[in-house]
Amino acid sequence: MKRLSVVLCGIGSAALADPIAVPSGQSIEFKQVIWAEAAETPNAIFRFVAPEITRDGTGIEYDTAAEDILFLCETFALPRVLAANVGGEVGLVISLSKQDLAFGEANPDILQFFENFVVRDATCDWGDV
Q: Could you tell me the superkingdom of the organism this chain comes from (predicted)?
């Protein structure tokens, strides 16, 4: 499988570094999108740093972060996927990480939340990728 990190739609890196406002109020930073060419469905992994996520009750728990993830899919990732005009269904993953972590790096001390979506009819549907 070929993986390629790209910036979509001609958006400059300064715009990508700006914090993104989400429903929970936490400050989220976009890190990168990775396109993975699969046999039948193109997949896009949108990676964000969300330093306030937690599982211990001291910050943004998963249930609240899930609303942020859907918001990021609908308002950040979806427009970029549609503008890329890849056609057909697109598997899309939204990843929130408590700290910046290199793609593919495992660190049990850094909390991460992931959700899968399928872009169908210009919408983010919860689903398998």
A: Bacteria
